Amino acid sequence: MTSTDIDDVAPRRTPSAEDFAAVQSSPQFQELRSRLRRFVFPMTALFLVWYLSYVLLGAYAHDFMATKVIGDINLGLLLGLGQFVSTFVITWLYVRFANKELDPRAASIRNYLEGGQA
Predict the structure, then answer these.
(1) What are φ and ψ of residue 91, in 5° steps?
(2) pTM, whole model, 2 decimals?
(3) Which residues contact 74 (CB under 8 A, 6 or more apart)?
(4) For residue 55, which of 34, 33, 82 has the smallest C-alpha distance?
(5) Is residue 56 part of a domain?
(6) Structural domain includes residue 77
(7) E-assigned strands of the chain?
(8) Per the structure, how many domains does the chain have?
(9) How far apart are CA 114 and CA 112, in angstroms?
(10) Which residues of the chain have pLDDT under 50?
């Protein structure tokens, strides 16, 4: 962006507290929150159950976790590595979900607020 491009961009207005309150009660914002919650809450619950299961197995099922799978690699090691893998998978799923579902809606709301339409 050159300095002439910056000069051609209209300044965005700063929304007021009333604008934010109006948008917060709008159906578009409620839909954004609903979509976020429908992804985040189940994914969080699923991960916490998975993590708690791993911890409890490690604490109380020593023989099970020590089960050899391949050579010196046991089930506990594989499940522990699975914790890392599942964290990366959840992050990837969230980024994909946010890019597709959340970001366009949030950008629309932001443009509405900053564009002086509120």
Answers:
(1) -60, -45
(2) 0.79
(3) 65, 66, 67, 68
(4) 82
(5) yes
(6) yes
(7) 68-70, 73-74
(8) 1
(9) 6
(10) none
